[in-house]
Amino acid sequence: MSRAVPQGALPRIAVAEISHESNSFSSTRTILADFGWPTSIAPADALRHAAHEYTTLSGYVEGAREFGLELYPTVIATATPKGPVADEAFEALAGEVVRIVSASVRNWSAGSG
């Protein structure tokens, strides 16, 4: 059973950053460890830090502030330039985004989120 969104409530927007510049000439694949994952920095802390930078993620933070939206940070992971991202690394990071968002939706539907 799903709950109705209260009238006038603003949406909670899930945000993730998986950032990497691929060098197709490099034979060394970018692996999960290159993203510093798992990280000891909480996504919410990374989001607060990003607010003071000039990145794509900081643009999301600025836009959310401007329009009074709530950002729900999931995965914040960056790697330095290297070869293409290994499938295992992408699947792990994308899978974590899906896991976090799915858990949030389940909690919200159950009335606790």
Describe what this molecule looks like in 3D.
It is a single chain. This protein is an alpha+beta fold and 113 residues long. It has one domain (12-101). The chain is 38% helix and 15% strand. The chain has helices at residues 43-50, 56-67, 87-109; strands at 12-19, 70-78. It is globular, with a radius of gyration of 16 Å. 19% of the residues are buried. The model has no long low-confidence stretch (mean pLDDT 85).
Question: In terms of structural class, how would the helical and strand content be classed?
Answer: alpha+beta
Helix content: 25-40%
Number of domain modules: 1
Largest sheet strand order: 1-2
Distance between the termini: 14 Å
Low-confidence stretches: none
Give the overall shape: globular
Mean pLDDT: 85
Number of strands: 2
Query: What value does the Rg take, in angstroms?
Result: 16 Å
Protein topology:
Blueprint: E1 12-19, H1 43-50, H2 56-67, E2 70-78, H3 87-109
Parallel strand pairs: 1-2
Key terms:
113 residues; 38% helix
Provide a concise account of the structure shown.
It is built from three helices and two strands.
